[in-house]
Amino acid sequence: MGAAKKKNNNKKKNEKSPKEAAPQKSKEPPKKSEWLDWKISVYDYEDKETYSYRVVQSPNSNLDKHQISKDSVLFQEASKAQPGTDFKVNGFRYKLISKKKC
After folding, report:
1. Could you tell me the residue ranges of all domains in the chain?
2. Where is the composition biased (Basic residues) (predicted)?
């Protein structure tokens, strides 16, 4: 019983201790040509949150947190809508708060 308890305590200690992060490659700042001059804000009815995105030309897999691809369905639909109007993407409702050139 004592050995099992000690093993369990060690396991808990290991979970609490911060794990060493793998060294990450330094990200180069994006080149000016990668950015488009658009920024959109949408309200997500399901999450009840407003999200703002900067539109970029890169594919969806290379995006940072507040970026959206110019080829994404969300941006394509948002670019057709007028600010203040609702639109749907894959069955989810959004409201376009703003779209503007930066």
Report:
1. 33-102
2. 1-14
Q: Residue 5: what pLDDT?
A: 55
Distance, in Å, from the CA atom of 27 to the CA atom of 35, rounded to the nearest integer, reads 16
Among residues 42, 56, 55, the alpha carbon closest in space to that of 86 is found at 42
pLDDT in tens, 15-52: 555 555 555 555 555 554 444 678 999 999 999 999 99
| Amino acid at position 7, single letter | K
Q: Which fold has domain 33-102?
A: Chitinase A; domain 3 (3.10.50)
Q: In angstroms, rounded to a whole number, what is the distance separating the alpha carbons of residues 47 and 15?
A: 31
Q: What angle do CA 92, 69, 30 make, to 5 degrees?
A: 145
